[in-house]
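Box 3.1 A note on notation
Throughout this textbook, protein chains are presented in two layers. The first layer is the amino acid sequence; the second is a token string describing backbone geometry. Keep the layers aligned when reading.
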Amino acid sequence: MLNIALFGPPGAGKGTQSEFLIKKYNLFYISTGDLLREEIANKTKLGLEAKSIIASGGLVSDEIIVQIIEKTITDNPDSNGFLFDGFPRTYIQAYILEGLMLKLNTSLNCLISINVNEEVSVSRLLNRGITSGRSDDNETVIRNRLKEYNDKTLPVLQFYKDKGVFFEVNGVKSIESVNLEIIDIINHELSKKLLNIVLFGYPGSGRGSQGKALAKAYGLEYVATGEMLDQEIKDKTGTGKRILDLYENGQLVPDEIVVHLIEKKLSSSKGVKGFIFKGFPRTLVQSYILDGLLKKHGSTISKIIEIEVPTLELIKRLDERSKTGNCMPYDTSTARIVQRLQEHESKTVPVIEKYNQLHGVSKIDGLGNFEEVFKRISFEIENGFKNLR
């Protein structure tokens, strides 16, 4: 996900640049003023509350603003990210946005400030007043707006300078030159991002074979908890002995072991382009663990894909697999197959629903031969990220 805050004094050209960036990177535009007007027009609960405050001459509280922004983000899971125009406006709002981004398992990639001096701003806005007929584009009002912008914005810019995500461009240059500078900044930031894919699907959907092929095609590290556990046993490590004891006693491997192995994998994989996770997270608890692990390593989930296959086809595939050397422990009888499918439905489907609400989950038709399904998944990955390159 690409999240950008675009700053600049009145007359800097934020509107022009915003329009271009929204189209190029498939971003959802967030202007608190526009969102408030929309909520009021739609007579939502937040809109009516805001209207009442405005009617009495008050300022809409940060509490209302952040609820509207959060609602907007969660209501638009298909966007590649969000472009914040003029938000956060205050130091306090910077902390609010930081907390909101953490809650939604994402972050602000960069704050880009389009710089123009006061006289240029005044000149541009006076010219706009002549052509647009806007009554607020007179010199006294303009200079007051610029003073308010500078007084409130400087602390916000320092907040993001301290975080290392603050960038400046010269807004006096031509529209095309400013645009190229902004694109260079964004592309540089995107080059730092890992491509992290979580691959979901019922047992028998083909996650394993597709996951390995995708990892090879995109230069990703394949992370499959089952294979990692088996490798520990094969290597006769201390952890492997614990896992073997659990298997022999019919017990499940606790999260603390799985998490330790995944964290070791993330830490030891240097210079990789990203990871593809298969078989993790299986539960809601594990989904929060994965979010935390990636955050610890300065990354987030990039894409979530679910391979969909009808239940009868799943049972047929698993039954056929039980007669081969690739037989899994739960393939050995129809009762065990059904139990494993039910377990996925009760424990993992809620995870997918959570991710769908927060990020959006791409549903892929898993019917057909391997190459057909692989092509569909690859198209989804390429389609989702072609504008972020």
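The chain has two domains: 2-190, 195-388. The chain has a mean pLDDT of 89.
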